[in-house]
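pasting for ref
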Amino acid sequence: QELRPKSLDIKQEELGDMVEKEMASTSAAIEDAVRRIEEMMSQARNESSGVKLEVNERILNSCTDLMKAIRLLVTTSTNLQKEIVESGRGAATTQEFYAKNSRWTEGLISASKAVGWGATQLVESADRVVLHTGKYEELIVCSHEIAASTAQLVAASKVKAEKSSRNLAKLQECSRNVNEMAANVVASTKSGQEQIEEKDTMDFSGMSLIKLKKEEMETQVKVLELEKRLEGERVRLGELRKQHYGLAGGCEDAPEDGEARPAPAPRRGILKKPPIAQKP
């Protein structure tokens, strides 16, 4: 008990209720996501036409397929958890089983939250893309996050499941289906983005030589600025992931105030001149 990380502020006897609550909340979030996508589809058909309507329909259809795959995944995961509890609790109650296996239970809660959050973020990103106020890259990132959250949920469920369990085999199949549907969202988003950009291609035919040269120089400056910004964002992403993994894992060495400690600078070795070989 002393070695357990203080990651949750709830009592152990409440863990079982938390699992059921989070799974129900995730299911409700997915149902709401499906409903919102249907509303966006209807709105897109009324307010857009041509290429934009074709792109929006393709993206929203792929998002709908992904939501349906996630809904089946959550249902199967819930059935597997019930099977695990019934086969492993013995004479103990369900609450006692969850409390005894608190680390596993916390993993299920975290994974369920991640799946529900990913589904909500995907719908919000799709809404902004359809309204032309968001970025296509947001949809791609959300799809990757959903795939990662799905893997987390399957791993948490698989820990205590019997290898011969039918529900486990079905859950793994659902996970592969979610990954496939997430890949379809990425593909439809990228193709839609390219299709829209091709439509809005700039026409340089009416520019003079001086104007073309000026545009070329300004574009080169912008490319350099974007490359520098990309490098900085990659460094920031790496630091965010380090902090995330540290907090999620309950690292013992992490400071209490939650701030990351800077790594000590490596000492430079003293460069010595190699000895001169002596004659035999």
